[in-house]
Design goal:
The complex is a heterodimer of chains A (283) and B (322). Chain A has 283 residues and is α/β, with parallel strands linked by helices. Helix content of chain A is 38%, strand content 11%. The two termini of chain A are 21 Å apart. Chain B has two domains: 166 residues, 3-Layer(aba) Sandwich (Rossmann fold), CATH 3.40.50.970; 127 residues, Rossmann fold, CATH 3.40.50.920. Helices cover 39% and strands 20% of the residues of chain B. Chain B is built from 13 helices and 14 strands. Chain B has a seven-stranded mixed β-sheet with strand order 3-2-4-5-7-6-12, sandwiched between helices. In chain B, helix 1 packs parallel to helix 8, helix 4 runs parallel beside helix 6 and helix 10 crosses helix 11. Classes of the chains: A alpha/beta (283), B alpha/beta (322).
């Protein structure tokens, strides 16, 4: 995949947001909120940052790998995988439908190119990513392993088992990102189960922590990922606290947990699509 | 045990099956550089120390964090490694069921979940650690192979065999010193029942430590003029249905024997096979819907009805129901 310039990344993001909304609307189910919020991150990774091959093989030797731990934001991942050539954009039509490779939550059972492990039950992705990163070291493969987690997901105990492990073994070819949108299903994280000072927590566990304060600004997201890479290879795993807004890009969805897991109506879809330019052609 | 019994299989040495695992893992590691080991703070108990010493770069101490261990192992398959995880059977299954379900079984990862201290014969530690539900949990998972070998030699052979098998495996073994009555040079065929003793009146299907009890029971039955067939079901899933059906067609009734709950164990799998193919009386030897307790392995097998005497009783009951 060639590195796409900033202007093109912004265009791709607009199309990915349209894909997300149309996929979720078509089946009246799925998770648009954090998918919209993480669009810049996914586009930056797949169209600029990662060294990857859309012909896809499971082992990914010599490639950067990406793991999605908060599997419910599958719409954004599927759109980006399709738009970067892992499978046809047309296949996005099958999202969450019977006999589809695009399961509600990402899976390997149907052999969807781009997905290396199932996710959905939260808290498991960081462990798998650490394992894959250690194998890269064993294989003398100097590529990176990326993993994205949710902020609500930080409430799962396994995350902290993995955090302790990553620092103990100095898994410094791993870059973890937390989608720090401060929302979860039942409301703001501070009301549901306060995460308190996440940065201090991860630092206390022995990780190199950076913050990307403008997680919906493409330049800032790219700069954050470049910084994360510059800190890799120095004996500590790297954590990128990516401040995003759930529902970003659609005025009536932004900044609330209400769109975590519900689909827009016909009218709402039309309104939302009116706010997002069709840049690469709808599927 | 009655010393005058004429046993079809005998032993000169006793050893724990977990040592078979440790020695098998070392051999598998020497044979295949992709074999890696992970352990959750039980290296000594799991007998993984020799592997760790010989292959320090391929061994990962994960601390007391079993959920993370399962996830790590699943991730390590990406890039071609063959991870063997080691902890007690309780912490290998119930504690991490969701991690195994999603990251290993559903994701069809080539992870070998190796579980020691299974069943009552764990002994004095008591019911918190004596898991009797693990086979049921693991055999329900699609893609999962479930193996419960009977002695040191068979456990060693099974450990080496699963390294060459592609796909997730649950390998169950135990703590007590147990007779070594199977050959050292055996070939372990996953999914292939081992026909150990020919008989005509009843078939005893046994797994794990209770295969030895079945061998003893056969001699006890023979002394009373009853001819029992003994089949070693080391692989509970996939089950060798053809071997089960063929044997029960000949003998007309069966006993299942396992160190596990009756609900969800080997006996249930055999019952399903028989009911669909060749209905016949089946008696179960296993733990009947209760937890264990502290005690010596022998005391526990006796109290919970899992020894040779109980297999003999069950065989007679099955024959009477023909």
């Amino acid at each position: 995949m060639e590195k796409q310039p900033l202007a093109q990344l912004t265009k791709i993001s607009s199309q990915v947001r349209r894909d997300i909304l149309r996929m979720v609307h078509a089946v009246q189910s799925g998770h648009p909120g954090a998918s919209l919020g993480c669009t810049e991150f996914f586009v930056a990774l797949y169209f600029n940052q990662m060294k990857h091959d859309s012909s896809f093989n499971m082992d990914g030797i010599g490639e950067d790998l990406f793991f999605l731990s908060n599997g419910h934001i599958s719409p954004v991942w599927y759109s980006v995988l399709a738009r970067s050539g892992y499978f046809s954009v047309e296949e996005l039509k099958t999202f969450r439908k019977l006999n589809s490779r695009l399961q509600g939550h990402p899976a390997t059972e149907e052999h969807l190119p781009g997905v290396r492990i199932a996710s959905g039950s939260l808290g498991q992705g960081l462990s798998a990513a650490l394992g894959a990163a250690q194998v890269k070291k064993l294989n003398q493969d100097d590529s990176f392993v990326y993993v994205l987690m949710g902020d609500g997901e930080q409430q799962e105990g396994q995350v902290w088992e993995a955090a302790m492990y990553g620092a103990h073994y100095g898994v410094d070819n791993l870059i973890a990102t937390i989608d720090f949108n401060r929302q979860q299903i039942d409301g703001p994280t501070k009301d549901v189960m306060d995460l308190k000072d996440l940065k201090a927590k991860w630092e206390a566990f022995g990780w190199e922590v950076i913050e990307t304060v403008e997680g919906n600004d493409m330049e800032a997201v790219l700069a954050g990922l470049e910084k994360a890479k510059s800190l890799a290879g120095k004996g500590k795993p790297v954590l990128n606290l990516l401040h995003t807004e759930m529902g970003y890009g659609v005025d009536f969805m932004v900044g609330t947990h209400k769109w975590h897991g519900i689909a827009p109506s016909d009218e709402q879809l039309a309104n939302a699509l009116g706010q997002l330019e069709e840049t690469l052609g709808d599927y | 045990m009655d010393k005058t019994l004429d046993l079809k299989y005998t032993y000169t040495e006793k050893k724990d099956t977990r040592s078979g695992f440790g020695d098998g893992l070392l051999e598998a590691g020497r044979k295949n550089p992709n074999v890696v080991g992970l352990c959750a703070d039980l290296i000594g108990s799991l007998k993984m120390g020799a592997f760790q010493k010989e292959f320090p770069d391929r061994f990962f101490q994960v601390g007391i964090a079993e959920a993370n261990m399962i996830g790590l192992a699943a991730g390590m398959t990406i890039g071609g490694k063959i991870p063997f995880t080691g902890t007690f059977a309780n912490f290998s299954t119930g504690r991490v069921y969701d991690q195994i379900r999603q990251s290993v079984a559903y994701s069809d990862k080539n992870v070998k979940i190796c579980a020691s201290h299974a069943g009552l014969t764990l002994g004095e530690d008591g019911a918190t650690h004596q898991i009797l539900e693990d086979v049921g949990m693991m055999k329900m998972l699609p893609h999962m192979t479930v193996i419960n070998p009977c002695d040191y030699n068979q456990t060693k052979a099974a450990t080496m065999a699963i390294a060459e098998h592609e796909g997730p495996v649950y390998l169950r073994f135990g703590r007590p010193s147990w007779p070594i009555f199977t050959p050292a040079d055996q070939k372990f065929e996953i999914g292939k029942a081992w026909h150990m003793i020919d008989g005509t009146d009843v078939t005893i299907f046994a797994t794990g430590h209770l295969v030895w009890e079945a061998v003893v029971a056969e001699a006890m039955l023979r002394a009373e003029g009853i001819s029992a067939e003994v089949i070693n079901i080391h692989t509970i899933k996939p089950l060798d249905e053809a071997a089960i059906i063929a044997s029960v067609k000949k003998t007309g009734c069966a006993v299942s024997a396992e160190e596990h709950q009756l609900n969800g164990g080997l006996g249930d799998s055999i019952a399903q096979t028989l009911i669909r193919n060749n209905p016949a009386p089946l008696e179960y030897v296993g733990v009947n819907d209760s937890f264990g307790e502290s005690g010596t392995p022998t005391e526990l097998l006796e109290k919970y009805g899992l020894n040779a005497e109980n297999i003999v009783k069950a065989a007679k009951k099955a024959i009477a129901r023909k």
